[in-house]
Amino acid sequence: MNITTNFFGMFQNQEVVEYTLSNSKGVSLSAIPYGAIVTKIVTPDKNGEKANITLNVESLEDMVAHRPFYGATIGRVAGRITDGQYIVEGQQIQLDVNEKGNQLHGGPAGLDTKLWKAKTKNEEDYASLIFSYKSLAGENGYPGNLEVEVEYRLTEKNEWKILYTAHTDATTLFNPTNHIYFNLTGNIKQPILDHKLQLFSSKFGMLGDRNLPTGVLKDSSGTAFDFSESKLVREAVLSDDPQIKLVSGLDHPFVLDQGDGAVQAILSEEKSGRQVILSTEESCVVIYTHNKEMDAFQIKGDPAKQYAGITLETQILPDAVNQSEFGDIVLHPDETYHSQTTYRFDVIE
What is the residue range of the signal peptide feature (predicted)? Predict the structure, then answer.
C-alpha cells in the first residue's frame, strides 16, 4: 500500500492537502480534509486502462462556492428533515433550514463544509485516511457537542471501507452518509443511463411535496423501482412512473433486505467492464441520478450534465426522526455510534 500527498488549495488561510491511497492492483482513492471529501477513485477497466470513476469539481474554490456535495461526508443528518423540526424527549428542536423550508444534508453549514483533522495509517493489506471533527452544540441548530470520526480504508481486495464513529454529550441526531457519485465509464461526459443496477430491496420510499418522504414504503415489484434483477438505469429514469416524473429520475430511498455485510447492490457498466459491489450495515440506500444539469460550475470544460453520475448513499431512511416506521437516528450521550459501508471495485468476468 502507498500513501502520497499533494497541495489541493487554501481554505480560511489553511493549506488543504489531498491524500491518495493506492494498492498494488491499480486502485487508488483520493480525499481532502475539507468536508472529508473523496475527490476521485481510480480503477482499471477490463482492458487494464485506469480512469477516475467518480464525479467531482476540480478545485477547492468550486467546492466551497457551489457546495455540490460530490464525494462529501454528509451530516449530522443526511437527506431532508421536514421543516427542520423534530421532537425528542419531549423537547421540540428547530434546526437551521436551507432548502424550501427544510433542512437538507445537515443544514447550511453541514459537515461537508468543515475542515476536518486528518491522519493516515498504512498496514500490509490496507491503508487508511482518518478524518475527525468536533461539531459544537448549536451548529446548524443541533444539540450536543458531537465528536465524529470517518475512516476511509482502501484494501488490497479493492475495497473502499467507510467506518463511522461518533459520540455526543447531549441527546442529538446522527445519520451520516457519503455522497459519492459513480460514473463507471470513466468519462463524466457520458451519462449513466446505460449502467446496470441490481438492488436487494423490495420496498422504496415515496416522495411528496418538497421532495419530502410521505412516510409510505411501497412494494417495488413490477414498478420502475424494481431492481431485483439487474437492469439498465434508463429503464427506471426514463419511465412514465409519476414518482420518477416528480424529480426527473431517481432520488429515492430503497429499504435493504439483507444485512450482516451481505451484498446489497451491484452497479455495473458493460463497455468498461467495471462494477461496484455494495454492502453496508445501514438499512437503506438512497439512489440519486444527478437529475439536473449543473451549469453554475464546469468539469473538464463543460457543465455537469444531467445523469452525469449515480449515488449509492447508505443511511437510515431520510426524515426518520419524523417517521415512526423509518428507524432510529437519535444518539444519546451513553452511546457510541458505529457504522460501516463497503464498496468493492471489480471487473466483470
Answer: none
